[in-house]
Amino acid sequence: MFLGHVGVGLALKRAAPACSAGVLVAGALLLDWLLGLFVLAGLEEVHVPSDFARAHFLTFTFPWSHGLLATLGWSALAAALAAALLRGRARAAGALVVAAAVTSHFLCDAVEHVPELPLLGPSSARVGLGLWRWMPLALALEVALAALGLWLYRRATPGGFPWGMAFLLLGVAAVALPGQLLGAEAPPTHLLAATWLLQAPLLGLLAAWLDARRRTHVPPPG
Ligand SMILES: [Zn+2]
Could you tell me if 70 and 62 are in contact, meaning their C-beta atoms sit under 8 angstroms apart? Predict the structure, then answer.
């Protein structure tokens, strides 16, 4: 899941309107950023199933970035960081909602991945409903999350339709969905890891920029 995480990040803006949407989007993508880091460090693994050309999804050994216990730890750390960096009205709500953004990643992935998300350590029980086995349904869920996120984002911020955020979501969809629906060959692991490392900071910065423009935009008189 990629588009869906961005949608959830935007949706959470409604719960903490004073917090930048960029922080929430980056929070929702944090576990994949960690996955990229840990794959490059040799601590976690990406597997290409033999039926990838038909199924179009990878499998993972990722207890440190995507385990439930690890997720709660990363959520607490992200909340502490947000509390230290945010000021004023954004602080308390922002810290809680950043934690929710990070935790939401586990919940969304648990719906789509096959049972491979550990509850505790590497050899603990694993969960995953495996919606990826029905890829069109999985992608429909992601599109729905993105649409919900955009709708809630619009309600949380002043002004008209958030065209900038809509185009950001369309861009993410254009990059992510065709490969997930039709990809015949998995990209090399190091390229995937580098992509995961870039996603959170890049989309976080873009969303923060669009959010700041929207918040400071004063409509012309008349
Ligand atoms: Zn993930």
Answer: no
